[in-house]
Amino acid sequence: RKEVEQDPGPFNVPEGATVAFNCTYSNSASQSFFWYRQDCRKEPKLLMSVYSSGNEDGRFTAQLNRASQYISLLIRDSKLSDSATYLCVVIPLSGGSYIPTFGRGTSLIVHP
Amino acid sequence: EAGVTQFPSHSVIEKGQTVTLRCDPISGHDNLYWYRRVMGKEIKFLLHFVKESKQDESGMPNNRFLAERTGGTYSTLKVQPAELEDSGVYFCASSQRSWGGYTFGSGTRLTVV
Description:
Chain A is an all-beta fold. Helices cover 0% and strands 58% of the residues of chain A.
């Protein structure tokens, strides 16, 4: 089982749609969680951290379920500019150090 | 604030040659990471520096890869000799904390032919 698994993509949605991505992780000792966004041929950029109580940033909502070991990202009112790959990043504590671990990413395509 | 800078942005080398990638982290960031993304695969951790010390190099694929961070500022990643499977995008990231807040450089696209 991969350490971090994400929904297979691509997700192809019309503008204005609501779309949700899930990500599961295998290491129960994971400490921190993030969603990154990566545009084609660009570097990953931090979209938002994921807190235990859930958090919202504009149209984006992130949730964490430690018991089930998954995190989610909800995008409301999708924009064309939301088209990108969304990377789930989990930070487990392993051998005394934190090793950021990436999922393969989920591709989102928002069309007019 | 200047971001994480990587050089070169692209490199095409022949199998057996040597290539050195450079990463300049954000000033004041003690943590520096190297990652690699092979086409179609997830971004894989290579190693982690805290200042000039290697905190974790468990992701380094083999002894053809050598990373250094002399003086705790910029870092280099040398591949010698390069093999075809080393092709991919090599990202560097830095952070103040070791558990988050990573800022990535734009990557070096390495092609070994």
